[in-house]
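Ligand: 1,6-di-O-phosphono-beta-D-fructofuranose. Inputs:
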Amino acid sequence: MKKSALQKARAAYQPKLPNVLTGSVKAVAGKPTQSVANQEEIKALFPSTYGLPELKFEKNSTPSTSSPVNVGVILSGGQAPGGHNVISGLFDGIKKIHPDSRLFGFIMGPGGLVDHNYMELTSAIIDEYRNTGGFDIIGSGRTKLEKKEQFDKGLEILKALNISALVIIGGDDSNTNAAVLAEYYKNINAGVQVIGCPKTIDGDLKNDLIETSFGFDTATKVYSEVIGNIQRDCNSAKKYWHFIKLMGRSASHIALECALQCQPNVCIISEEVEAHNLTLDDVVNNLANVVASRAAEGNNYGTVLIPEGLIEFIPAMKNLIAELNDLLAAKADEFAAVHHSEQRKYVIEHLSEANATTYASLPEGVARQLTLDRDPHGNVQVSLIETEKLLSEMVAKRLATMKKEGKYNGKFAALHHFFGYEGRCADPSNFDADYCYALGFNAACLIQSGVTGYMSSVRNLVKPSSQWLCGGIPITMMMNMERRHGEMKPVIQKALVRLDGEPFRKFASQRDDWALNTCYIYPGPIQYFGPAEICDQPSLTLQYESKN
Ligand code: FBP
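Predicted complex:
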């Protein structure tokens, strides 16, 4: 395969491993843990893996001797920069356990395990993918592992390949799968450990012991680069309002991080919209007021960052989506049989009065998008909802009214952007390259410790990587019960933006200035080579959170 000059140079990058992982390690167990909520229900559902202690690795003075281990690996869910480094770290980690250890990759996500679709990852293959973006080494998928038949089918191939540990690299839903699988295999004494790794650009898989999910750092740096470029264009031409929707599914971490990096005129934070019980009209009025204030100063241009999950956080919409989820789960076949042109009417007739009114008020396109298929985990596919267009159309209408009332006298021309897929497969930043490699290597150490149902945890991330702390946390510790497909299910609790957290407070303290004045920052592209203060800085979210 032909490679770019950067690809060639990047292949030689040696990820920096935390000191603690450089020699032989021992696992030190902490206190038993509890799930974040619904303790009794989670305990009953995970009798074999609930309440396990946190683990911390320390250097071991006596080198450990081990036998070769065969390990399987799965990339699950949306792509995130650094996945290939988790796999190369895992590969190097199990080779350190014993040079005859072998790594097998299951193809196209969890479905590869069930369908017995796999390949052996040799050192020649791994070397081709070190420090590269993408998940193309084995591909990814969103198959939900939840049925006994899937687990048993998976076990057949694990046994055939003599695999005694499986590493699932995924987000909250995929790590929920990992916990369920770990519980099942432990319960039947299958002899297969299951270890999770925290992946997602969304940044919503985190807690005190998982400081960030991998990929967030690189993806937000890529988006911030292009937002900065748009801002410079915007500040040069001074004639457009740019409505920029950013991926991130439910949580607004990506939008907030990009706002901190770029200082746009407006950034909507979904969690704040919900906390203040704002309606769609409130959001639109706030935006229109900023446009009018800037126009009064002769500035008919600006930038607005919109988190893709916004719609789900507007309380009226949240209620509507919850009822729609149940309705579409209960009447899936009946709804599918309704002719396209009659589906809106069907939905309105089957919803409660309040939700029917909200649904009826939505533009056709948005209403349709809300009834499209959920992903296999029951999530509305928010990346398909064109909130940026919905908002700019509503702002234009509001401004027209304000003009008639003599409250606005400007020009409003809007352009729309959606940044998501652009950032998910970028070459990992030095931070993500190091973090991912450490997560994979650390997963190998967890395997060597013989545990199951744990997530690889590498923390102290604002410090130089040599000082990072490594260990494992029981996945059940992160779980609560939530309604999915009309039923209560154990799932990892999503970490949303905290309005009392330092990143949001920092943003909130400056946003009025950013709204009226033009305070744009232009972060520029990720730098892979050069001084550490340019190349190795973690996200601002992580830096501010460490001050909480
Ligand atoms: P994960 O939660 O699996 O990491 O996926 C994140 C994400 O990129 C979201 O930000 C986005 O809403 C979704 O995936 C898009 O899904 P798809 O890749 O299936 O279009």
